[in-house]
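Exercise 7. Predict the joint structure of the components listed below.
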Amino acid sequence: MISASECLIFARNTALGLVAWFAIATAVQAQSDPLPSWNDTAPKKAIVTFVERVTKEGSPDFVPAPARIAVFDNDGTLWTEHPMYTQLVFALDRVKTMAKDHPEWKDKQPFKAVLEGDLKALAAAGEKGLVDLIMTTHAGMTDDQFATIVTEWLAKARDPRFKRPYTELVYQPMLELLAYLRANGFKTFIVSGGGIEFMRPWSESVYGVPPDQVVGSSIKTEFFMRDGVPVLLRLPQVNFVDDKAGKPVGINAHIGQRPIAAVGNSDGDLQMLQWTTLGASTPRFGMIIHHTDAEREYAYDRDTDFGRLDEALAIAPINGWTVVDMKSDWKEIFPHK
Amino acid sequence: MISASECLIFARNTALGLVAWFAIATAVQAQSDPLPSWNDTAPKKAIVTFVERVTKEGSPDFVPAPARIAVFDNDGTLWTEHPMYTQLVFALDRVKTMAKDHPEWKDKQPFKAVLEGDLKALAAAGEKGLVDLIMTTHAGMTDDQFATIVTEWLAKARDPRFKRPYTELVYQPMLELLAYLRANGFKTFIVSGGGIEFMRPWSESVYGVPPDQVVGSSIKTEFFMRDGVPVLLRLPQVNFVDDKAGKPVGINAHIGQRPIAAVGNSDGDLQMLQWTTLGASTPRFGMIIHHTDAEREYAYDRDTDFGRLDEALAIAPINGWTVVDMKSDWKEIFPHK
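Solution:
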């Protein structure tokens, strides 16, 4: 038998034990490796060191949570951009789908080139040809209709090499980095040269990034009431190009403060990296994903039309930017094996 | 004496009691009135009914948290806009401060009118005069410099009638509504015709709305490197006017999904209310703040240049929008007595 006071002590200890169990469970979770797809090389150490510096209360490097803003390029940084930007694949597919209502396209560039699969003729149509393609395939419908078109296309389209949906060709190490930053009080944003409305229908389910934390290029839209129903119509006019020097402008417009961490993979991310990391009074983190793994993904930098990386790579050491060598720094590339 | 099994049961009950205590403490907190500055009239009931409908899991009206987007106009909805928009007071003050470096303004409109306090001549300068004023006072500096100018001005400026900083002339019932929505999983955004960079320096401390959840009118900015330091320069060119049919466009650009709740106070909010509430498949909430309290604040609707309310008020009943009569529906107006 047990005395009443012994029992009280036991009961108190049980209650305290419950509280302690919660505390231990939380601590264990925090200690397990948050970046298992990263090899234990310099980039992983740089990430963890930076996050620990800015989140340690009382430290001179501490950054309060509302200022923990991290920005990520999308094409080539969060998902594969070779052999062609996925949004361009989408536009070419749309031309083929829409062609039955446009018999005149058989003789009209750049549509003729797309329908005949003549990539040389398409390239010859230059930037004007590209803008024509984008406006034809991305405008003239409501924003809701466009989101549906994108969602339905992504559900069916398959990458020709990996035979998988494009939304599965996202980088596992980057998914872990996004989650690790968010677990440490960061707000994560996508800042992409790609179309803002092309990314939003799937950014939350794939990356955990809600639509209002996606920054990208856009066309103009117009609001009006049609038969008592509010409509936002997509117009065939460029509104904003979120690339190169446009990225800091887009960041300012949407986020309204300078990020403290930026990750990109091309010269299109150079100004975003400069804006994030240079001339600042608090610690900053800049990172470049260098595509070096032709076997598991692709190897390219200077000599490509999609994600050209030259100047940013050259000045990375001067600016203290971490360069990720995909081949040696990433244990896994994709979520699937 | 107590048997070991009795003691085990007691210990278990103590532990369960601890868990129950947390649950009760949370429930009690949830039951205390979240809107104490609202009288128990129709608007308060409409707010609570809507929030309970969309947050009740399993109900056909349930809206998942990521889609719980609420948008608020600022001038006249969250803070006082009479006798003149605060941002215009700021611009006029800036002209006076800058005048010592611009002797030519003594003979040049609209600056002459501002320096002489001649509001009639200022009004005669029309929209072009207003744009000139805004560009002169809001452009030509970096975004950091502008944020500092705004912050320093707000710290010193006092409203002539209430003798208080403008950031204290915010509506207590609206602060409670913002907090109540956030406590129920809503993300709250400001969608204002005012300047986005004029609101961001103080939106988080005053409203609990972070800079990236502020949508507003803007001028263009340009990014470049100056002596190794990244700079965003504010240019004297209009970028976007976030008013009337511009509000749904701004909402789409920044938020990327239709809100389920919108609050405004003028015809400038009409299209935002339409975009939020009409032709939707889930429950929506629209609310108009009607300024009816000349004694505690101001009384105006049709006959004013600042926050004119006519058409939106007329069609509110047809659209099921809740109209707040400030005089009878608000127990308190401001946070101070």
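Discussion. Strands of chain B lie at 69-72, 187-195, 214-226, 229-240, 261-264, 285-292, 299-300, 322-325.
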